[in-house]
Amino acid sequence: MKTIYLDHGATSFPKPPAVGRRMKEYVDEIGANINRSVYGPAQQAGMVVLRLRQRLGELFGLSDPTHVILTPGNTWSLNMLLWGALRPGDHCLVSSMEHNAVMRPLQQLALCGVQFDRVPCDGQGRLDPARLEEMLRPNTRLVVMAHGSNVCGAVQDAEEIGKICAAHGVPFCLDGAQTGGHLPVDFQSMNLSALAVPGHKGLLGPQGIGALLLHPDFAAALTPWATGGTGSVSDSEFPPAYLPDRFEPGTPNLPGAYGWEAALDYLQSVTIDQARAHDRFLSQRFLDGLRGMAGAVLLGPDGVENRVGVFSLDFPGQDNAQVAFRLEEEFGILTRCGLHCAPSAHQTLGTFPRGTVRFSFGLSTNPEEVDYALEAIDAVRAG
Ligand SMILES: Cc1ncc(COP(=O)(O)O)c(C=O)c1O
């Protein structure tokens, strides 16, 4: 039985072949650190990292590559953002659909005197920007939210929310974990102050690397969350004042940078518009196939507008974990079951603490796999 990987919301697989090739090339043939030594291989690696920053900046509409901060991943980026921006007495607004990569740091910050509120989303996981505007307070210092839900694929109206935040002078920061590489995300039109993206999901890179893109005004007010050696300003025991060094302590993930640069090269050749069209095509096919299937209840948007190809299904009367197990055992289909690190999102959708079975598509998913998944769902829905 072949294996069908439908867990791209967790991580993309397989990666473009150049990703692994370039990582191996770095480990076997380059090996040098950047920003420390000045010999040839170190400079070569430094150029790859610079190109990576440039590609990310181009992809997301941020002109200055020095403000593309490379991090060990999206959770790290979000922690940098939250811990670096919020002080005791500050207020932060999030949506009710957030991942624990936002909620857990916020709960820790609440222990230190930071306040936060969740803007309630509707039963499909969508946030009403007008409701967010009503909930802004004089001490609101940050609005942070997942652009796309990792539970049900709902995509928030980032342009409208960005306008509201700009009008009130509140920084707007987006968690692009489920939308980066799947649809256009643009710093300018969304009025973003910061954007966090992981390398390993829709951006097709390896695990263990991510980026935090910073608007210069926002960066100027951000405190470094982690500090250490940078290979620069070494006469001082304080972090450098300039970016990216200020926010990039320690030896970076260079195999990851090589792999990610190759992944972005590939993505650039496909184009985000094509990736978006592919995602919509598969989503439409999946939604059409699900229609009329009693016993498999779809959560989240039931059309292709305002969504990405991440779908949660509930199988009432059955144990969803058991359903996911059967999908693998009997059909070779790899999905994810449970709460997907987002209890608040499941509370919003009415599936807490039961959880759901999540099917998520990527660039390498083909229509036959979607059809096969539909056949499998049809077979397991009866119990
Ligand atoms: C919406 C969202 N935010 C944050 C994260 C955390 O990303 P990572 O585990 O790559 O750090 C995820 C991962 O699933 C996610 O889906």
Task: Explain how this protein is built.
The chain has 383 residues and is an alpha/beta fold. The chain has 2 domains: 4-14 and 271-380, Aspartate Aminotransferase, domain 1, CATH 3.90.1150.10; 17-270, 3-Layer(aba) Sandwich (Aspartate Aminotransferase, domain 2). Helices cover 40% and strands 14% of the residues. It has 12 helices and 13 strands. It has a 7-stranded mixed beta sheet with strand order 2-8-7-6-5-3-4, sandwiched between helices. Strands 9-10-13-12 form a 4-stranded antiparallel beta sheet. It has a two-stranded parallel ribbon with strand order 1-11. Strand 3, helix 4 (100-111) and strand 4 form a beta-alpha-beta unit. Helix 10 (320-331) packs across helix 12. The mean pLDDT is 97. It binds pyridoxal-5'-phosphate. Pyridoxal-5'-phosphate (PLP) binds at residues 73-75, 99, 101, 146, 150, 175, 177-178, 198.
Biggest sheet statistics: 7 strands, mixed
Distance between the termini: 22 Å
Structure classification:
alpha/beta
Low-confidence stretches: none
Number of E strands: 13
What fraction of residues sit in β-strands? 5-15%
CATH architecture of the largest domain: 3-Layer(aba) Sandwich
| Rg measurement, Å | 21 Å
Order of helices and strands: EHHEHEHEHEHEEEHHHEEHEEHEH
* Helix count, DSSP H or I runs of 4 or more residues: 12
The side-by-side strand order for the widest beta sheet comes to 2-8-7-6-5-3-4
Give the bound compounds. pyridoxal-5'-phosphate
CATH topology of the largest domain: Aspartate Aminotransferase, domain 2
Under CATH, the homologous superfamily of the largest domain reads Type I PLP-dependent aspartate aminotransferase-like (Major domain)
Helix % is 25-40%
